[in-house]
Amino acid sequence: VVVVGSAHHVGLRPPSMVNTPGDVRGFDARTGALLWTFETIPEPGEEGSETWLEGSGSYTG
Fold first, then answer.
1. Taking all residues of the chain, what is their mean pLDDT, rounded to a whole number?
2. Nearest-CA neighbor of 61 among 10, 25, 8?
3. How many CB atoms neighbour CB 18 within 10 A?
4. The whole model's pTM is what?
5. Could you report how far apart the first and last alpha carbons of the chain are, in Å?
6. Cβ contacts of 48 within 8 Å, gap of 6 or more
7. What is the pLDDT of residues 8-33, one digit of tens each?
8. Rounded Cα distance, 23 and 40, in Å
């Protein structure tokens, strides 16, 4: 398994609303197939989502 962290667009930084979430992904080292994704920002209703202030969880925190 190859684990890949997040990368953000050059020149932008969180909490820019045009940036991407910092998901972490695991890939099969031989085939390159995506095996799993860990979403670092919980979706509304998921455990921990209430800790993101002023809607910051809806973009990049």
1. 80
2. 8
3. 8
4. 0.64
5. 28
6. 42
7. 655 555 555 666 667 899 999 999 99
8. 5
